Amino acid sequence: MANITCSNIVKSYGAFPVIDGLDLSIPDHEFVVFLGPSGCGKSTMLRMIAGLEEVTGGRIEIGGTDVTDMPPGDRGVAMVFQSYALYPHMSVADNITFGLRRQGVSRSEIAPRLEQVADMLGLSPYLDRRPKNLSGGQQQRVAMARAMIKTPKVFLFDEPLSNLDAKLREKLRTEIRKMHLQLKTTTIFVTHDQLEAMTIADRIVLMRDGEIEQMGTPDEIFERPASHFVADFIGTPAMNFIDATIEAGHVARAGSIALSLSPELFPGLVPGQKVELGLRPASMDLAAPDAPNAIGGTVVLVENMGAEGQVITQVDGAEISFVTPQFRQVRAGETVHFALRPDQIHIFDPETGRSLRGV
Amino acid sequence: MTRKIFVRLALVPAISILATLALVSIAGAIWFALMNRTLRSPEYEFVGAYNFLRLLRDSRFFNALEISALWELITVTGTLGLAVLLSVLIYETVQKPLWRNVICFAFLVPVLLPRVAAAFIWRFMYSPSLGVINYLCGLVGIGPVEFLADPSLALISVAVVDIWQWGLFFTVIVLKLMETLPRDPIEAAMLDNARRWEIHAYVTLPMLKGPLVSLALVKAVESLRSFDLIFVMTGGGPGKATETLDLYAYQMGINMGGRISYASAMSLLLLVVTTIAFTVIWKAGKKWAA
C-alpha cells in the first residue's frame, strides 16, 4: 500500500515534449483513472510510473521512496497490459507464479498463494492450460492473477478491457472494482472509455496533450466540468454546445433560444459578453412551450436506446439533442419543446474553453 | 482445368527434376554397390551383399562414423550456441538500428564466402609459422600450436571455421527473430523481477523454441555436406582424426583405392542412417517445440 507522488514530470521524444511539467499526487488506497483521448500521454505516464519508460525530468515517489531511477521489478508495482502480455509457452500456473519464483519465494509458500488467487478469479480449473487455449476474458484474469499474487504496493492497469467484448468488459470492470474494495491497493487504471472511467474510479485524472485538464471525483467531473474539452469528453450522448450572448438580467440568448442563468453560479457575467453554452442532453426533457427555459425545435431523428430515446432536433439551423423516456410519442418533423434547470447549464469562455462558473 | 489437375501439373517439373537427379544417382549407387567394380580394371562381377558385409568389419568405417557424429554434434551445438549468445548480446547492447544493420551485414560476409576460400583463409591463419593466430598465441607465451596437425585439436579447429561461417549467419537470423517478438511479455517479465539473462532464458528464447529447432535441423543437414571444408583444411588427417564418412568414401572410391563399389555401399549406408536419424530427430524436435 502506498501513495504516489509525481512532481514536475517531463517526457520528451527527441526535442518534442509529450508531457511537460506534470504534477500529480495519489493518496494511499485510491482507485485513480487516467482518462483521455489517444495520444494524450496517459499510457506514457503509467509506463513511467511502472519504470518501463524513462523519465526525461522530474521525480516519481511510491510510498515515500524515490523510484525514479529504479528498475521496474524493484518498484513494488504490478501491471496488467492491454494485450495481457502472458508468457505463451508457460502454463497458467507458471504464468501466475513467475514473478514470485524470480523473487526466490519458496515453493511451499507459492502453492497456497496460487490457490487463493486462482480461487478468487475462478481460474482453478485452467491452471495446467496454455494461454492460447483460454478465451480473452480468461487470459485477462490470468494477467490479473499474475499481478495480484505479488501483493504489490500499486496496481497499474493499461487499458486492460479494451480487447474484450462489451458484456465481458462490464463484468470484468465490476470484478476489478470488487477486487479493489477487498484489497484496497492503490490503483491506477488507464482508459479512453469515459463510461468505464465514471463507473470504476474514486478519482478521474482527465488528460489532454500531456497535461491534466481536470482532476476530481466522477461526480465533480460530470457536474462541474472545468472546460469545454472535459464537458465534451464526458457523458453520452455528448453535450450540445451553442454560442450565445449575455443580455441584461442574466439571460443567455442565441437566436430563438433565451435561457435565464443562475446569478449565484455565474456571478461574473456581464451583458454583451460572448459565451458558449453547454447543455447536456440527459439534463433536458420534454416540457410545455411556456415552461421556463423552454427551447422549441423541429424533430429530425429519434434514436431508440431502450429505456430512453435521444431526440435530435433542429433549432435555428443547428442541431440540439435531448434524452427523454417518452421518446415513443415523438415523431420526426414535429415541433417539440424541451427545457432544463438553470443550475444544469454550463457556460464556457469561447476563447479559452474554461468554465465561467464562479463557485 | 480443375484444381486437382492444376496441382498435379504444377508438381510435374519439380518431381521430374528430383527424379532424374536423385533417383537415378541412387539407383546407380545401388547398382555399383552390388558389383565389385574398381577404377583400375574394366572387369567386374556381381557380388551381392559382399561390400556391405565387409563394411561391418571395417574399423576405419566405424571411425569415420564416429567422427561424422562428433562433427555433427560440435558444429550444430557450436553454431546455435554462438548464434544465441551473440544475438542476445547484440539485442541487449546495440540499440541503434543503424549499428545493428552494420553488424548484421558484417556477420553475413563469412557465409557468403565459398567454403574452399574460407578453408584456405583459415588454414593460413592457423599456420604455425605464418599464421596470425599463432602470432597472437606467441604474444601470450603459448605455442606455436599445430592446430591442424595435432590429432586432438584438428577436428575442433576445422569446426571453428564452420561455426565462424554459420554461427554468425544464424546470429543475424536469431536477432531478427528476437526483434519480431512482442514487447509486452518482455516488459511483464521486467515487472516480474526477472534479471536480463532471466528474461532471455525464461521468456524470449522459449518463445523462439520452434524456430530454433528448425535452425538446428537445417544446420545438421548442412553439416553433413562439409566435405570441401575438411578436404581443403586437413584432407581427413592427421591420420584419421578428421576423416568423416564422405571423406572416407572419397578416399576409398576415387583418391587412393579406386574401389567404386565399396564407396557406393558406404554412401548408401550413410543415406539410410541419416534418413532414419533425421526422421527421429525431426519428430522429437517438433513434439518438444510444440
Q: Give me the count of strands of chain A.
A: 20
Order of helices and strands of chain B: HHHHHHHHHHHHH
Distinct helical segment count of chain B:
13
Overall radius of gyration of chain B: 23 Å
Cα Rg of chain A: 24 Å
- Any low-confidence stretches of chain A, pLDDT <50, length ≥5? none
At CATH level 3, the topology of chain B is MetI-like fold
Helical content of chain B stands at: over 70%
N- and C-termini, Cα separation of chain B: 39 Å
Major beta sheet of chain A, specifics?
A: 6 strands, mixed
CATH superfamily of chain B: MetI-like
Query: Oligomer, anyone?
Result: heterodimer
Chain-averaged pLDDT of chain A: 90
CATH architecture of chain B: Orthogonal Bundle
Account of the protein in words:
- The complex is a heterodimer of chains A (359) and B (290).
- In chain A, helix 2 packs parallel to helix 4.
- Chain A folds into 3 domains: 230 residues, P-loop containing nucleotide triphosphate hydrolases (Rossmann fold, 3-Layer(aba) Sandwich); 53 residues, OB fold (Dihydrolipoamide Acetyltransferase, E2P) (Beta Barrel), CATH 2.40.50; 45 residues, OB fold (Dihydrolipoamide Acetyltransferase, E2P) (Beta Barrel), CATH 2.40.50.
- In chain A, the strands form 4 sheets. A 6-stranded mixed beta sheet of chain A has the order 6-7-8-3-9-10, sandwiched between helices. Chain A has a 5-stranded antiparallel beta sheet with strand order 13-12-11-14-20.
- The longest helix of chain A is centred in the middle third of the chain and has 18 residues.
- Helix content of chain A is 24%, strand content 33%.
- Chain A is built from 8 helices and 20 strands.
- Chain A starts with a strand and ends in an 11-residue tail after the last strand.
- Chain B has 290 residues and is mostly helical.
- Chain B has a single domain, classed as MetI-like (MetI-like fold), CATH 1.10.3720.10.
- Chain B has 13 helices and no strands.
- In chain B, helix 4 packs antiparallel against helix 7 and helix 7 packs antiparallel against helix 10.
- The mean pLDDT of chain B is 87.
- Chains A and B meet through strand 6 and helix 2 of A and helix 8 and helix 9 of B.
